[in-house]
Design brief:
Helix Hairpins, 4 helices, elongated
Length: 104
């Protein structure tokens, strides 16, 4: 039976991280930027679990860190969606460049 090596796991994690960075830097829509941040956080979670499995297979420290990051990401997503809704109500757009213009 073929076992997945740590190199393959780190390759997937690195690909997710750079896809997230690309989405964060090239998109102007706040929701797609939020999704890009979530991709970056998921790549970090993959690293935590992979290094925990291969370096310390008897401990669960990496899994606990991953659960903590998932919890923080959920709170961050809820807060970001609330900010995006508030921005849409005031500017009628969720474009980042439109958020710079203040309307009173």
């Amino acid at each position: 039976m073929n076992e997945i090596s740590i190199t393959q796991i780190l390759f997937v994690s690195t690909a997710l991280f750079f896809i997230g960075m690309y989405g964060l830097f090239t998109r102007r829509n706040m929701i797609t930027m939020l999704m890009a941040i979530e991709l970056i956080l998921n790549s970090v979670n993959i690293n935590f679990v992979a290094f925990n499995k291969y370096l310390y297979p008897d401990k669960l420290d990496g899994v606990f860190f991953a659960i903590f990051v998932i919890t923080i990401a959920a709170a961050e997503a809820a807060l970001a969606i609330a900010i995006i809704i508030n921005l849409y109500r005031s500017h009628q757009s969720i474009d980042v460049e439109d958020a710079n213009e203040l309307k009173y």
